[in-house]
């Protein structure tokens, strides 16, 4: 599999993680996929280069693009968002590998659906490919990604990486609570956002993030309200909304 380095943020490190992850994905599922391209940010979102992710309320982690007139099927990975919340010392570890693995496998899941027509069962039915994501397809791509992660968890070092990820999520969650109590709502929102990005099952962090943002909007309605719009339908992102990810 060809990996194109078009990112200035940790391109070689991300390529190394991707190579490790590809060992856990069936070559048959990658058939027809031309390349994986690493870029910094989602080019179609003007706010991505202006606002930090925690003020946007979501991250752009990756995207699968089907064959078009210009290029063959390919996957884009957005390196700046993929490492959010991971301390520098852990960006070389299984913590980062697992974070990238979920996104990469999710996008491969879209490729499998596009080429084979289903993930687990031929009776699966999907809406036509379009600008608005099909919720069922997103759920099935997640299921595919979780299948890949479960295989990775059979190795002890990836189990340690998962454990460290949960600990890091709880650390940011607790830190965010203290910032909130101190009235430092922007720092609280950032910490709770990282906690949720690291572990989407940390629903307390998701709810706390919303509370932090409500405080920020109340304090600065004119500067934050137009930016804090988590209702826009957009493919290939991770969203904090009422403690849930979609």
Please explain how this structure is put together.
The protein is an alpha/beta fold and 246 residues long. It has one domain (2-239). The chain has helices at 11-22, 27-30, 53-56, 79-82, 94-116, 135-152, 156-181, 185-198, 203-219, 221-224, and strands at 2-5, 35-39, 58-60, 62-65, 74-78, 237-239. A hairpin with an 8-residue loop joins strand 4 and strand 5 (74-78). Helix 5 packs across helix 6, helix 7 runs parallel beside helix 9 (203-219) and helix 8 (185-198) packs antiparallel against helix 9. The two termini are 28 Å apart. 39% of the residues are buried. The model is unreliable at 225-236 and 241-246 (pLDDT under 50).
């Amino acid at each position: 599999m060809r990996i194109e380095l078009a990112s200035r943020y940790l391109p070689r490190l991300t390529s190394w993680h991707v190579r490790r992850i590809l060992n856990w994905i069936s070559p048959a599922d990658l058939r027809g996929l031309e390349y994986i391209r690493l870029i910094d940010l989602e080019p179609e979102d003007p706010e991505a280069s202006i606002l930090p992710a925690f003020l946007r309320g979501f991250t752009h982690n990756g995207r699968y693009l089907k064959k078009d007139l210009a290029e063959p099927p390919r996957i884009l990975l957005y390196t700046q968002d993929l490492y959010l919340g991971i301390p520098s010392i852990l960006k070389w570890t299984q913590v980062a590998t697992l974070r990238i693995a979920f996104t990469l496998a999710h996008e491969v899941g879209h490729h499998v659906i596009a080429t084979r027509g289903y993930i687990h069962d031929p009776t699966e039915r999907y809406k036509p490919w379009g600008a608005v994501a099909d919720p069922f397809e997103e759920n099935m791509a997640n299921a595919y990604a979780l299948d890949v992660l479960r295989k990775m968890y059979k190795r002890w070092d990836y189990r340690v990486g998962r454990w460290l990820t949960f600990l890091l999520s709880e650390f940011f969650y607790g830190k965010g609570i203290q910032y909130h109590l101190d009235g430092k709502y922007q720092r609280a929102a950032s910490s709770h956002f990282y906690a949720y990005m690291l572990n989407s099952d940390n629903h307390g962090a998701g709810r706390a993030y919303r509370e932090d943002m409500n405080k920020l909007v109340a304090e600065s309605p004119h500067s934050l309200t137009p930016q804090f719009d988590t209702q826009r339908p957009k493919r290939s992102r991770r969203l904090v909304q009422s403690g849930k990810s979609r």
